[in-house]
Amino acid sequence: MESPPINDFDVFLEAKHQSFFESQQAIIALCTYFLGIIKTIEDLTDDQLKDELFKLLQVSLWGNKCDLSISAGQENSQKSCVLGTLESFLPLILVNDMEYVWSVTSSCKNARRNEDSLTRVDIVLDNAGFELVTDLALADFLLSSKLATEVHFHVKSIPWFVSDTTKQDFNWTVKQLQAANHMWMSKCGLKWEGNLKTNAWVFHEHLFWSLPHEFCDMAQVAPDLYRDLQKSNLIFFKGDLNYRKLTGDRKWDFTVPFSQALNGFQPANLCSVRTLKSDVQVGLKPRQGEQLSASEPDWLVSGKFGVIQFSASV
Question: pTM (2 decimals)?
Fold first, then answer.
């Protein structure tokens, strides 16, 4: 008897689904909050839009804590949404470049008032489960607020490392939200399915994301992907592994500028949104890293701290 094909088999699928279901309360809270914003988004001032963007960026950041790799595959779901505690989490953001994100997106929006142009935002995804839902909410907010006209998502083409998002995970999550018996989850799922059907959301798979190369090699190794990213106005890189590949996973001094650590990789404006789970971090203030090492010896790997770290294209 012939073995069934296993080219799309994901050994981590059950753990990812379990993480999603165990994060239901947090997902419900986020969907409810998000749709509340959307109802009045046309009436929001620029300052209010910026405030909501910053909130959803922070939710996406702290959603990155839900990583099955850091817990060796053990239960690590998001039991409650962090929306109500964002202010208390602000000191844990070691590099906070949210103002640059607003500057890029709002400038593009203002420029479009005088010409028929597009604003493209790309998101290189990390984990499935609750984190993916936070990324989808951020992506839809960018569209609904007209800070972007299209959002492109990038995932690995094979199931690669525990909770990494694949195309299968992405589609399953949207369908699962649609089918939920909670009204606001279902409405989000339907809205997001609509974004895919109208190509306001565009989905990309590429083998490069699961190859061993650091990102500064992309232009040579995967020139098609690099050229595509050059069309973006802003690229978000989610998670720790993407940060390690952005910086070459080298033991940089903590104060080395982020742009220097990128080693020439700058297809467009880019922003790393990441909780710290590995021994690499750049762009800190003098003595900041040493002070953290003295007070919190595991600060680099615990997932307690995060960065929203921006580098502008030349």
Answer: 0.93
